[in-house]
Write a structure and sequence with these properties.
Distance between the termini: 41 Å
CATH topology of the largest domain: D-Maltodextrin-Binding Protein, domain 2
Order of helices and strands: EHEHEHEHHHEEEHEHEHEEHHEHHH
Radius of gyration: 21 Å
Bound molecules: beta-D-galactopyranuronic acid
Shape: globular
Oligomer: single chain
CATH superfamily of the largest domain: Bacterial extracellular solute-binding protein, family 7
Number of domains: 2
């Protein structure tokens, strides 16, 4: 967090002279994102920044550092905990070992679709999981869309669980996903997102899994020509703030930030829906073979041990039950 309250008169004069917009901000919150400029999550946080700046009379600014400029997700989570990074937009996946409640919404097939995910995350369960971040040094602000994740690879069309046998598949850095791949008979390779392109290209891995916008914007579709729409994961993305940075703000400014995060959520959903279509068109036009009529039942049935291992406390089991019971 950068405070500009103590600017000397001379510096103020030179800043005014140069007309530098950023110097108007008393507080600049640095926000991390692994995705490139223009990606729905990056754009949403930028729009949130515009709201915050306007509503604070120009006092509070958000600087979005996209394209993993501040590092890969798992590392940026650590840095956010210690206040080195003020805000972070990450998948819930890399949060699994820090905030155990996030494991529940990272379980394969826990949501019946995006609408179900929205109804759960917009209600009391979503509030409960946002609140669960705080004892670990984070303030949960909002959920963003992350679509459905499906398998892609460079070797062959995957049409059944049996096709995954022995394949080396990259997953996000969480044991939930490692166990998910083992349950499907594949070899999981946890790896930061930024390393996946070259790992696919050099054959270190055979495949990975992600949603349309990530598959497209990362360029993975250029080196993995088979995409199977099995939609095993719908993992909400989280926008969090460092508690260290949060505690430096007044209660009024905290409320202002919370409200802006809430207000930007529907904007993110619109941006996401539009980008999903654009990315799908681009990937299809590039000639990627899409396997879209697949029986998901064997994939769902194979997940029983993953639920048993990870939803392993009364609290987590109860969350699973309540999510499944949400209409
Ligand atoms: C994307 C997600 C990122 C990151 C990435 C990954 O869909 O938006 O936050 O988690 O997947 O696979 O690492």
């Amino acid at each position: 967090m950068t405070y500009m309250k103590t600017l000397s008169a001379a510096l103020l004069a030179s800043v005014a002279f140069a007309g530098a917009a950023a110097a108007e901000c008393e507080v600049t919150l640095r926000s991390s994102d692994t995705h490139p400029d223009g990606y729905p999550t990056v754009e949403a946080v930028k729009q949130m920044g515009a709201m915050v700046k306007e509503r604070s009379g120009g006092r509070i600014c958000i600087e979005v550092l996209h394209s993993a400029q501040l590092g890969e997700e798992k590392d940026t989570i650590e840095q956010t905990k210690f206040g080195v990074i003020d805000m972070n937009r990450v998948s819930m996946g890399p949060f699994n070992s820090t905030v155990e409640e996030t494991k529940v919404v990272s379980l394969p097939f826990i949501f019946r679709g995006t609408d179900h995910m929205h109804r759960v995350m917009d209600g009391p369960i979503g509030e409960e999981i946002l609140a669960a971040f705080e004892p670990h040094g984070f303030i949960g602000l909002a959920y963003f869309d992350g679509g459905s994740r499906s398998f892609y690879n460079s070797k062959k069309p995957i049409t059944s669980v049996a096709d995954l046998a022995g394949m080396k598949v990259r997953v996000m850095q969480s044991d939930v996903f490692v166990d998910m791949m083992s349950a499907l008979g594949a070899n999981a390779t946890p790896m930061p997102y930024g390393e996946v392109y070259s790992a696919l290209q050099t054959g270190v891995i055979d495949g990975a899994e992600n949603n349309w916008p990530s598959f497209e914007s990362s360029g993975h579709f250029e080196v993995a020509g088979y995409y199977t729409l099995n939609e095993h994961l719908i993992v909400p993305e989280a926008l969090v703030m460092s508690k260290v940075s949060w505690d430096k703000l007044t209660p009024e400014d905290q409320a202002l930030i919370r409200q802006a995060a809430k207000d930007v959520t529907p904007i993110n959903r619109e941006l996401w829906a539009a980008r999903e279509k654009v990315s799908e068109e681009k990937v299809r036009a590039a000639g990627v073979q899409i396997i879209d009529s697949i029986d998901k039942t064997p994939f769902i049935e194979a997940m029983v041990p993953v639920y048993e291992k990870h939803a392993n406390t009364p609290k987590l089991k109860d969350l699973v039950t309540r999510i499944q019971a949400t209409e």
